[in-house]
Input
Amino acid sequence: MTWGLIGASIQGYSHLRSNKKNQDSFNIFPNEPITPPPIIFALSDGHGGEKYYRSDIGSKLAVESAIEILTEFTKSPLIEEINTENIEEMNKKIKNTVCLDIVKNWRKKVASQENPEDIKGDFNSIQREKNRPSIVDKQLEPYGSTLLIAVICTNCGIFIQLGDGDILFLSGKNQVERPIPKDENLIANETYSLCLPGAEHYFKVNCILFGNKNEIDNSSDPSLIMLSTDGYSNSYTSDENFEKVLIDLSKIIFENPEGLQSGIKNIKDNLESWLQETSKLGSGDDITVGLMVNLN
Output
């Protein structure tokens, strides 16, 4: 099983006009265009408000933290043991251990950015109670960021999300699915963040087993996975219109008359310009997209 990987991140049109940095980041492991599992793709969206004035750094540290923790996790024999009977238990285990470790790792990295004399608390401690900010939590706030992760293993996909953004995959005949449903509790520009007290509580996790046949057309496994920061979906008038993007990208890849690799190259060559145009005509926000193409 091999996958093709494509990533792009662009400065939003409104940020370009106001001379604000791109506050999104992404990271891939291994950093190869075509690779077998395990594969980790992480995206992060730094918050754009005035109090989040270091969120461009926060988002970079977020994807670094995720890659480091999950690289170790993918070495665990536990992954090979995931099955239909224990998958819910595994979701909980990942949330309670892996996500907690990501938060801890991010906090350590943020602490390394601060001047020692400015630190008035223990960055390594984790506030387990929600909505009770400490002095350290206030120091974390400027780095506030979301996190989206897809992990591809030989037997399953692991999807992890904190805050807004979208993870979509295509299965069957143009069937778009969300491994993690949209959070209806998040309205307008509200989002969960790594800088929140008890941030680990807000992660959502879903493992999906590969090799399960679709009864409609006998297909199995996602053919295309897309992760994107919210600047992308916010550029469309409806979820339905946004989800059509995945179908359109799939056609460019899989229906290219010159073959699959030519389709992938077409997207790599044009994705940034497409995203810039989308931001200009849509949300005006930074947009980051990760595509994982099933080459089997």
